[in-house]
């Protein structure tokens, strides 16, 4: 494998609700830094139906060029079809680095592509850097249950691929009018070549708000005392139209599922408002929420570390304060 043939930093641009998914814009921000360090181009790969115009958004967020596969066959995400397009693009244009958002679609596509290419994939990365001279991608992620940060290298193969957690990288400020090159691509792919058929899309009807997308998160810790006490967190969240978060100790106690866990070995969140209730503020929790817009802590221990990291702190018993908040918000919000 001749490494000199492989150039450029690529980002898989995921389409979401008619636009480019926030995580892809974040990756353009991270990718821009890597590309500048390597003095190379930052490219996006767009696959879908009627999506060519989205390339303009990618340019405004830092891309120099976008490879576009615009065809009815890509109307819905299907592993086989998207994988075939991505593989063709990689084989033709040979990127040095290829990044995907660690979303359901990004993870599915990246792992499918990795099974075909003779290269590796670092999953769920939280930090990225590149060696300026060698182009070696330094992809870091928590390992061994979060006890260490491992930096994973792919020394012998190209492209170097990684999925990156949403909300960890920063998108660049939008630069209206910034332009780039659209490169229209296609492969001879027929409907009969794709074994999966999308018969119907059924939107989830749950009223629950997803933790990684929420503007407000109400998080509870062991200070709630019991699963019954933790119900107060659900009620407050429902009152505010917020998502429910939790500390690891609460998840390990089985009071709520792991996908609600905030922190080093859980989800990284950046809501506008984050309530930390009965949470001590261990560093492993803080790293997952410290970039929230406004942090409000409730804890009965005035020396709890969370009070060093919040904007507003209430010292007192959550069992008394949270019901008052629920009542107050319910009457204020009607
Ligand atoms: P505690 O530390 O038990 O704190 C409970 C708090 O509630 C205390 O501050 C107490 O004063 C307060 N309290 C008690 N009663 C009341 C009351 N009635 N009203 C108000 N306040 C009250 N943790 C995470 O959260 N996320 C992670 O991703 C994560 N990853 C980890 C990875 C590793 C490798 C390790 C070693 C640990 C990790 N942890 C993680 C665990 C972390 O170190 C803490 O143990 C955990 O965050 C503590 O949870 P807690 O704050 O709910 O519980």
Architecture blueprint of SSEs:
Layout: E1 9-13, E2 15-16, E3 19-20, H1 22-37, E4 42-48, H2 54-60, E5 65-70, H3 79-93, E6 97-101, H4 104-116, E7 121-125, E8 127-130, E9 137-143, E10 148-152, E11 160-164, E12 181-184, E13 216-220, H5 227-240, E14 243-246, H6 248-252, E15 273-277, H7 283-286, E16 294-299, E17 312-315, H8 318-333
Parallel strand pairs: 1-4, 1-6, 4-5, 5-12, 6-11, 7-11, 13-14, 13-15, 15-16, 16-17
Antiparallel strand pairs: 2-3, 8-9, 9-10
The structure holds flavin-adenine dinucleotide.
Residues 145-147, 221-223, 247-250, 261-266, 278-280, 282, 284-285, 288, 298-301, 304, 317-319 line the site of flavin-adenine dinucleotide.
Describe the structure concisely for a colleague.
The protein is of the alpha/beta class and 334 residues long. It has helices at 22-37, 54-60, 79-93, 104-116, 227-240, 248-252, 283-286, 318-333; strands spanning 9-13, 15-16, 19-20, 42-48, 65-70, 97-101, 121-125, 127-130, 137-143, 148-152, 160-164, 181-184, 216-220, 243-246, 273-277, 294-299, 312-315. It has 2 domains: 9-184, HUPs (Rossmann fold); 216-333, 3-Layer(aba) Sandwich (Rossmann fold).
Description:
- There is one protein chain.
- The protein is built from eight helices and 17 strands.
- By secondary structure, it is α/β, with parallel strands linked by helices.
- The protein has two domains: 9-184, HUPs (Rossmann fold, 3-Layer(aba) Sandwich), CATH 3.40.50.620; 216-333, Rossmann fold (3-Layer(aba) Sandwich), CATH 3.40.50.1220.
- The strands form four sheets. A seven-stranded parallel β-sheet has the order 7-11-6-1-4-5-12, sandwiched between helices. Strands 14-13-15-16-17 form a five-stranded parallel β-sheet.
- Helix 3 crosses helix 4 (104-116) and helix 5 (227-240) runs parallel beside helix 8 (318-333).
- Flavin-adenine dinucleotide (FAD) binds at residues 145-147, 221-223, 247-250, 261-266, 278-280, 282, 284-285, 288, 298-301, 304, 317-319.
């Amino acid at each position: 494998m001749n490494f000199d043939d492989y150039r450029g930093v690529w980002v898989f641009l995921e389409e979401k609700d008619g636009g480019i998914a926030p995580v892809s814009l974040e990756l353009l921000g991270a990718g821009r830094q890597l590309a500048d360090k390597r003095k190379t181009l930052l490219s996006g790969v767009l696959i879908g139906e009627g999506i060519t115009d989205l390339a303009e958004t990618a340019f405004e967020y830092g891309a120099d060029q976008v490879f576009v596969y615009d065809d009815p066959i890509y109307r819905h995400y299907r592993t086989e079809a998207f994988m075939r397009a991505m593989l063709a693009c990689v084989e033709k244009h040979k990127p040095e680095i290829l990044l995907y958002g660690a979303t359901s679609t990004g993870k599915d596509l990246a792992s499918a592509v990795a099974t075909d290419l003779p290269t590796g994939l670092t999953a769920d990365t939280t930090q990225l850097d590149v060696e300026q001279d060698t182009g070696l991608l330094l992809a870091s992620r928590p390992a061994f249950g979060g006890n260490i940060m491992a930096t994973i290298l792919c020394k012998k193969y190209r492209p170097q691929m990684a999925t990156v957690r949403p909300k960890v990288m920063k998108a660049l400020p939008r630069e209206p009018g910034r332009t780039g090159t659209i490169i229209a691509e296609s492969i001879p792919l027929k409907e009969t070549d794709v074994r999966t058929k999308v018969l119907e899309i059924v939107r989830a009807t749950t009223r629950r708000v997803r933790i990684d997308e929420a503007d407000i998160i109400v998080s509870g810790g062991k200070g709630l005392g019991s699963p019954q006490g933790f119900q107060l967190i659900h009620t407050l969240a429902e009152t505010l139209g917020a998502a429910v978060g939790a500390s690891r100790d609460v998840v390990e106690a089985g009071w709520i599922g792991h996908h609600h866990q905030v922190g080093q070995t859980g989800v990284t969140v950046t809501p506008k408002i984050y309530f930390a209730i009965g949470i001590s503020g261990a560093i492993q929790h803080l790293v997952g929420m410290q970039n929230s817009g406004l942090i409000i802590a409730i804890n009965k221990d005035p020396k709890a570390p969370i009070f060093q990291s919040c904007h507003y702190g209430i010292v007192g018993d959550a069992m008394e304060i949270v019901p008052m908040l629920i009542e107050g918000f319910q009457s204020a919000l009607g």
